[in-house]
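For this section, I looked closely at the sequence of one protein beside the tokens encoding its backbone, which the following lines show:
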Amino acid sequence: MQIRLEDGMTIDDAAIKLIQAYEPLNGYYLGFSGGKDSVVIEHLTHRAGVKYQAVYNVSPIDPPQIHSFIKEWYPQVVWENHAQGFWNKHFMSNGLPTHRIRWCCRIIKEAGGVGRVKILGMRSAESNARSHYRCFSERPNNTFRLLPILSWSDADVWQYISEHHLPFSALYRHGFNRIGCVLCPFVGNAEIKQSLILFPKIVQNWRNACDRYVIERNANPKRKPLPFNTGEDYFNWWIKR
């Protein structure tokens, strides 16, 4: 990697030193999503020579290509399923996730590693909210979060992948800048249009859930009715953002 820091250290060396400095006695819980950032942090953590376990929190709304990629290239990753009952239980209680109410992240991605020091691939460049994150912080339930590539740009990530000949998901070749949950509330119109074409089964699951939710919500006198007559209306409102 090119030298980026004032003391002459490369950014990957700095990330490795950070990982080594916070190593817990029971090892790290490394959140592995199958995206480019998790590929980089897994490699950096391996280079750091610390104890860790890479874990994929199984998502029913992840593209199937992610599952295939992890199985082929990272068979050592442990799969944990915290999202059981996603469609019939959690969706029916919460409805569609939005910018303001991201219950899906809490159910799927944030449930694992409680009480552990978690290494994650979040970066400041990804959003305004993440630009305020710190490299190391305490989280609820005696959990800690380490973000070793927080200051890296997209170019830094791709350069590291290229220099170390790391595998990455073919979805990036389809124009996706970030890969993850299909129709995530934070993706733009271009990725929504691609998702509607590339992931029809997951899209249909969203549609079916919307149908059930609108019917049950509007029939429940104890809950405020939705301003939608059908699940299709609800779904179309959602993907238009």
User: Anything to note?
Assistant: The first strand starts at residue 28 and ends at 31. The radius of gyration is 19 Å. The chain is about 40% helix and 10% strand.
